[in-house]
Structures are given as C-alpha cells and as structure tokens.
Amino acid sequence: MILAQAPDGVPTITRGDDLAARLAPVLAALTWPDGSRGLAEGDVVVVASKVVAKAEGRLVAARDDAEREQVIAGETVRVVAERSRPDGGVLRIVENRQGLVMAAAGVDSSDVPAGTALLLPEDPDDSARRLRRGLHARFGVRPGVLVTDTAGRPWRRGLTDMSIGAAGVRVLDDLRGRRDAYGRELKVTVVAAADEIAAAADLVRGKATGRPVAVVRGLGHLVTTEDGDGARALVRPPEEDMFRRGSDL
User: Fold this and answer.
1) What's the alpha-carbon Rg for the chain, to the nearest Å?
2) How many Cβ atoms are within 10 Å of 232's Cβ, its own excluded?
3) Which of 165, 232, 173, 163 has its CA nearest to residue 200?
4) Residue 205 φ/ψ, nearest 5 degrees
5) Phi then psi for 126, rounded to 5 degrees?
6) Is the pTM of this model over 0.70?
7) How far apart (Å, rounded) are the C-alpha atoms in residues 165 and 99?
8) 111 burial class (0-12, 13-18, 19+ CB within 10 angstroms)?
C-alpha cells in the first residue's frame, strides 16, 4: 500500500531558514492509519523547489518584463525552442544551469513579492542531501528526499511535478532483464521512479493550498542508505537526445 499526505501548517520560509528545522514540527505531527506518527524508515519527503529556493535566498529583482527576461537569459545555457506569445512576448524553452529543459529556465514569478522572481535552487541534489541530513538528525531515520518542480511535457498537455533534486532515492528503477507475464524479457523498461513519486505527492500537496511538502510511505524498496547519484541522473545526455533542438512550425 502506498500512502501520501501533505501536512498543514508549514511556516513561511525565508532566506537563511534551516529548512529541516522549520519542517520538523509539521512532519512530526503527521498521523498515519496504523497509529504511528512522524517519519519512518522508507518514507520519502517530497518538497517543492520553491520553499527550498526561498530558504537558499534565490529571490532576485525582476521589476519589469525586460528585467525578468534578463534574469531568464542569465539562467539559460541553451535555447531549445521559442514561440511568440499573443501579448508580444516570447516563450522560450531552454536548458538551464541545472541541466533541466524548462520554460523560462524555471524562473518563477508566482507567490513572491511584486518586482521579484525566484530562481531554482543552485544545486537541487545538494539541497536534497542537506535536508536529508537535517531530518535524520531530528528524527533518527533516513528518509528519501525529493526536491520537485512543475513542468510541461513536449507531447502532452498539462503540467506535472518532476524531481529536480534527490537524496536517498533510486531515481531510476531499472526493470531490464525481468520478464513480463508472458515470459518475455524486458529490454528497455527503466522507470523514472522519482518523477512518479513527485507526481503522486503533488496530488495531495496541491498548487494553491499552502502545503508545499508531502510524505509518501510504502516505497521503501526505492529508498537507499546512501544518498545516491541524485536527480541529475534523470537528465538525458546529449548523445541520447533525439529532440536536442525544437522548432515552431
């Protein structure tokens, strides 16, 4: 059985906050169907990148559209595709400094003070590792930790959450070599487990409910003692990328 819940009462996070210390009280108050409370071994703590970025002081000035475009350009490594918007602006899909292909380089102007924008955490995998250490110190268990962000997908409508940082989670679940129900060997099936956990957690977190953190229980087989390679392992290397350059036809 897989259980997921997102606690209420997460405090406002600001620059310099110890994220583990700020989240510990609300995580400790979680009550599970078996009567247990708090975190247990094998749990996965899923945190929206926005609160991580706020704690890390990633808020920057973006007082007008021109300044916001400068911020986006500063976070851009490679332009993948672009399209004119009805308002006269340009939507750009780019590869950012974290190696992620996202709209506007992941720069976010929602839920931040007017005239500012929020960058993604500089190193989301390191952010996940530090949060994991902090939670371990407070709870005595080593949960998996995912840092997630919302993104679109090139062939599908709608947004979903994906993992951009990970610690203690097997982000790719390689099923190759196993056999299906008919005895055929699986040759290409590698599941993006961290992204699936991120999307499941987002169903209980919600986008506008003030609940940026969720805990997923029941996936202990994906939680590892070591921090692991992190979510960077999910990024497809250039030599495997069939869609390196997009176009607007």
Assistant:
1) 19
2) 16
3) 163
4) -75, -50
5) -65, -40
6) yes
7) 12
8) middle
Q: DSSP state, 143?
A: -
For the purposes of burial, counting CB atoms within 10 Å of the CB of 47, is it exposed (0-12), middle (13-18) or buried (19 or more)? buried
> Would you give per-residue pLDDT tens digits along the chain (249 residues)?
999 999 999 999 999 999 999 999 999 999 999 999 999 999 999 999 999 999 999 999 999 989 999 999 999 999 998 888 888 778 889 999 999 999 999 999 988 999 999 999 999 999 999 999 999 999 999 999 999 999 988 889 999 999 999 999 999 987 888 888 888 888 778 889 999 999 999 999 976 678 999 999 999 999 999 999 999 999 988 888 877 776 554
Beta strand extents in the chain (DSSP E only): 3-5, 44-48, 59-61, 76-84, 90-96, 101-103, 116-118, 144-153, 156-167, 173-174, 190-191, 213-217
CB 125 within 8 A of CB 166: yes
All residues at 6 or more sequence positions from 83 whose CB lies less than 8 Å from its CB, including other chains:
90, 91, 248
Alpha helices in 89-148 (DSSP H): 124-139
* Helices (H) then strands (E): counts for the chain: 5, 12
Domains of the chain: 3-58+120-237 (3.30.1330.100), 59-119 (3.90.1660.10)
Of the candidates 130, 110, 105, the one whose C-alpha atom is nearest the C-alpha of residue 120 is: 105
